[in-house]
Design a protein that fits this description.
By secondary structure, the protein is an alpha/beta fold. It has one domain (6-206): 3-Layer(aba) Sandwich (Rossmann fold), CATH 3.40.50. Helices cover 56% and strands 11% of the residues. The protein has helices at 17-28, 43-48, 50-75, 91-99, 102-116, 132-142, 152-172, 192-206; strands at residues 6-10, 32-33, 83-85, 124-129, 177-182. The chain has a five-stranded parallel sheet, sandwiched between helices. It starts with 5 loop residues before the first strand and ends with a helix. It is an enzyme of class 2 (transferase). It comes from Paenibacillus pseudetheri. InterPro entries: DCK/DGK, Deoxyribonucleoside_kinase, DNK_dom, P-loop_NTPase. Its EC number is 2.7.1.113.
Length: 207
């Protein structure tokens, strides 16, 4: 049986993933899966010392996202109902490959594949691509204390990592539709026409 539409909104920190996913969920009357961020007890410590806290941080995210994905399968995918998420589980590898080293990285890779390889993945990805200035502006606007003073070099590298990851997903999952949104030019919050265009495209894909 063909999998029901499983839409993921992705992009680097500050791209507007949750905002767009929430707007689409409301417009299309879809259930939404939001990643747990603020509840991660290691997040503030990670930004203070990435080397010491990266493994704990990434494992917390991976386990929580795995549980959310498992629940999503039971509640929606297995029943043939569409759903939207403000992340793709693959983001765990994007961040893990950047923050972890040596044996910790290898252990993390193994755990990731054990948990996720047999679970359904999104078949539609909205990738919000944005440059450093755009991301920094949005990060400052949302005002999360633990993101203050974020290393811009880390954020710049994440931008490249996301581009590479989307290219890899296009090869690994050729049936997945990846839509790239220019986050520097497209303002789906302030410009209703931009949002309407995105909605129209998603509706066509969901038919």
């Amino acid at each position: 049986m063909k999998q029901a539409p499983f839409i993921a909104v992705e992009g680097p920190i500050g791209a507007g993933k949750t905002t767009l996913a929430s707007m689409l969920a409301e417009e299309l009357n879809l259930p939404i899966i939001k990643e747990i961020v603020d509840e991660n007890p290691f997040l503030a410590k990670f930004y203070e010392n990435m080397d010491d806290w990266s493994f704990q941080l990434e494992m917390f995210f991976l386990c929580n996202r795995y549980k959310q994905l498992e629940d999503t399968v039971t509640q929606y995918i297995d029943k043939g109902n569409p759903v939207i998420s403000d992340y793709h589980i693959y983001k765990n590898l994007i961040f893990g490959e950047r923050t972890l080293n040596g044996t910790k990285r290898e252990k993390y890779r193994q755990i990731y594949h054990v948990l996720t390889d047999d679970l359904p993945k999104p078949n539609i990805i909205l990738y919000i691509k944005a440059n450093l200035d755009t991301l920094l502006t949005r990060i400052e606007k949302r005002g999360r204390p633990f993101e203050e003073g974020m290393d811009t070099a880390y954020l710049e590298q994440l931008i490249k990592d996301y581009d590479d990851a989307m290219a890899s997903l296009a090869i690994q999952e050729p049936s997945t539709v990846i839509i790239t949104i220019d986050g520097n030019a497209v303002d789906f919050v302030e410009n209703p026409e931009h949002f309407t265009e995105i909605v129209s495209y998603i509706k066509e894909l969901m038919k």
